[in-house]
Design brief:
single chain, alpha/beta, binds alpha-D-ribofuranose, binds calcium ion
Length: 307
């Protein structure tokens, strides 16, 4: 059978337990030519997200280049998450302090321009690096194949304030730049993430995997954090659900929507406002995921990590 050619991909991330699982899924799938992992401040500081990214790549014995990026959002001060613990990856044995080369934006531009319209971006943290790249290179959006974004809350409450999803809450200005940019966007919002979580019993199905012990050590902390701060009884799979779209888009239903980001109101900053009226002039700017085949995701996730 013709071997599938590998999909050129850049992962922009703020590890974070769910980021870690997303990166593991994509690397273990062996379906991607992952040209870079770029880090951004979000779940925790840029030093911690970069240390955590190094830890994940080392766990996978991966030589994928790692480039650190923005230490703060475009305008407001950094507000970190609580669920991931002090260093952003509670339960992981982080031993290295990774050098911050601050090359994320430069490398995103360079790699996309090397293969115009071929490279996909998976953006699973605040969109600061992407916005900086678009500000630096006005042509860049048209040269990107697609951006798959974990972010937004369309018809459900926020998870960081009443209306805002965390990644957009941290840097609404960046998200506004990205959502206005002329590039194909696939958006995986809280609406489809809130009901898909894995329990420790699910993770115990990874017993055969070399990653079993570190994953269990991390998930015990993550599940506890989610229980305390998001009142859910398992590991919410925000970023792995965004990553899985790249592996199996047929497991997803999407709807074209006109999504704008609130950047001015103190009350609703970070809200992703989708015009869902069935009338009125619309400027569709995103394919928003409205349904995911949960069983297919869980089976493929477990089977891929067990390889
Ligand atoms: O709202 C969930 C998102 O915020 C996920 O990407 C999680 O890792 C945090 O970054
Ligand atoms: Ca994340």
């Amino acid at each position: 059978m013709k071997s599938l050619s590998k999909i050129p991909l850049i992962i922009d991330t703020d590890p974070g337990h769910d980021d870690a699982l997303a990166i593991m899924l994509l690397i273990k799938s062996e379906r991607f030519d992952i040209q870079a992992v770029t880090t951004v401040a979000g779940n925790t500081t840029i030093q911690n997200t970069t240390n955590n990214a190094r830890y994940i790549l080392d766990l996978l014995q991966s030589s994928i280049p790692l480039y650190s990026g923005a230490a703060a959002p475009l305008r407001q001060k950094l507000i970190c998450a609580n669920v991931h613990g002090e260093n952003g990856l509670a339960g992981a044995q982080i031993t290295k302090k990774e050098l911050l080369n601050n090359l994320a934006v430069t490398k995103i531009i360079e790699l996309v321009r090397t293969a115009p319209s071929k490279v996909s971006l998976l953006v699973i943290g605040p969109q600061t690096n992407i916005a900086l790249a678009f500000k630096q290179d006005l042509e860049l959006p048209k040269l990107i194949k697609q951006i798959v974004i974990m972010g937004g809350a369309i018809a459900v409450p926020g998870n960081k304030n009443a209306v805002a999803e965390f990644n957009i809450f941290v840097d609404p200005e960046a998200a506004d730049i990205v959502f206005r940019a002329p590039v194909k966007k696939i958006v995986i919002p809280l609406d489809v993430c809130n009901d898909i979580f894995l329990t420790l019993a699910d993770f115990r199905r990874l017993k055969k995997s070399k990653l079993y012990r570190p994953i269990m050590a991390m998930m015990k902390h993550y599940i506890q954090g989610i229980k305390i701060f998001e009142r859910t009884k398992g590991a919410l799979m925000y970023d792995p659900l965004a990553a899985y779209y790249l592996l199996n888009p047929r497991a997803y239903e999407t709807k074209k929507m006109d999504v704008r980001i609130e950047t001015t109101s103190d009350l609703t900053r970070g809200m992703s406002v989708a015009d869902r009226r069935n009338w009125g002039e619309k400027k569709y700017n995103a394919h928003v995921v409205t349904k995911i085949n949960r069983d297919q995701f869980v089976e493929d996730f477990i089977n891929t990590l067990n390889t």
